[in-house]
Write a structure and sequence with these properties.
The N terminus is likely disordered. This protein is an alpha+beta fold. It has a single domain, classed as Beta Barrel (Lipocalin). A hairpin with a 2-residue loop joins β7 and β8.
């Protein structure tokens, strides 16, 4: 019986640690660059020389704050789920904003494909009528 309890505890602990290690988005990310393509084909490119943003991910929640030239640009926070391959670090993030300065995002489901290469996270997908591609760098 003691062996069963020890084995069960060991399996439970290893599952908890594996779950923590498996989520590659945990932590804080710094915006590097973005490319935004409107429905009419107009492309807007932004980098972190004039636009600053941070994203933080916990197990099931995310938040982000945006600044431009020292001026507050907005925030978003909500829940997310991941579907990904832990070997290639490619997959999909599905976000559900609960609060946002962009009120049109609240209650929507946003889906983005992503790849993580080292400490660089590249994400791309559609929000409303804009195709978004962003690059983020992990801070911690």
């Amino acid at each position: 019986m003691i062996r069963f309890i020890l084995l069960s505890t060991l399996l439970l602990c290893s599952h908890v640690f594996a779950h923590t290690e498996q989520n590659p988005l945990l932590g804080t990310w710094y915006f590097i660059s973005g490319e935004y393509t409107a429905e009419d084909g107009k492309v807007t490119k932004v980098d972190n020389s004039k636009f600053k943003a941070l994203r933080t991910h916990s197990d099931n929640n995310f938040s982000a704050i945006n600044m431009g030239m020292g001026e507050y640009k907005g925030f978003i926070e909500g829940s997310y789920t991941l579907k990904y391959d832990s070997h290639t670090l490619t997959g999909t993030i599905i976000e559900k904003p609960l609060k946002s300065s962009g009120k049109h995002l609240i209650g929507k489901t946003l889906k983005f494909d992503f790849v993580i290469n080292g400490d660089i996270w590249t994400t791309q997908g559609q929000e409303s009528n804009v195709y978004i591609k962003e690059v983020w760098q992990k801070l911690d």
